[in-house]
Write a structure and sequence with these properties.
By secondary structure, the protein is mainly α. The chain has a single domain (2-124), classed as Tetratricopeptide repeat domain (Serine Threonine Protein Phosphatase 5, Tetratricopeptide repeat). Helices cover 78% and strands 0% of the residues. It is built from six helices and no strands. The protein has helices spanning 2-14, 16-48, 52-65, 72-86, 90-103, 110-124. The N and C termini lie far apart (90 Å).
């Protein structure tokens, strides 16, 4: 009987450990996502105020430091759009759109990035082949 009780006493301490690990992990993930959301808000503010280099810095930090964050693909999207629409740096825009589809192929933004790359090649670079009806 004492052996069973001793085992039960040990189990009483062992069973809460996975739960505590889960709670601490969830809290850390939540904290990181909140920190990233603050960085996104700062980047958006700079972007609205047309401080594009500061906005790019914030977005690049988000993408580089938090590549698994829910905001990482959005950061690449914004980087590409700033380069294309605001700074007219076609090469960097294409590179950023390409990185988005390569690193986040399942992102809802991936298809839009493909479309933007096609638009850039057709409109800006004029290097898409023309299809002629026979």
């Amino acid at each position: 009987m004492t052996r069973i009780r001793l085992t039960n006493d040990r189990l009483r301490w062992v069973l809460p450990v996975p739960f505590l690990i889960f709670v601490v992990g969830a809290w850390l993930i939540s904290k990181v996502e909140n920190d990233v959301a603050v960085q996104v808000a700062r980047a958006q503010l700079h972007q609205r105020e047309r401080h594009y280099s500061q906005a790019l810095n914030f977005y690049e930090v988000i993408h580089e430091n938090y590549p698994r964050s829910q905001f990482a693909d959005d950061a690449l999207w914004e980087i590409a759009n700033i380069y294309y629409g605001n700074l007219y740096d076609i090469d960097r825009a294409l590179l950023s759109f390409h990185r988005l589809v390569q690193e986040y192929p399942e992102s809802v933004l991936a298809m839009d990035a493909y479309l933007k790359m096609a638009e850039i090649h057709e409109v800006e670079l004029r290097d898409l082949p023309r299809w002629h009806k026979p």
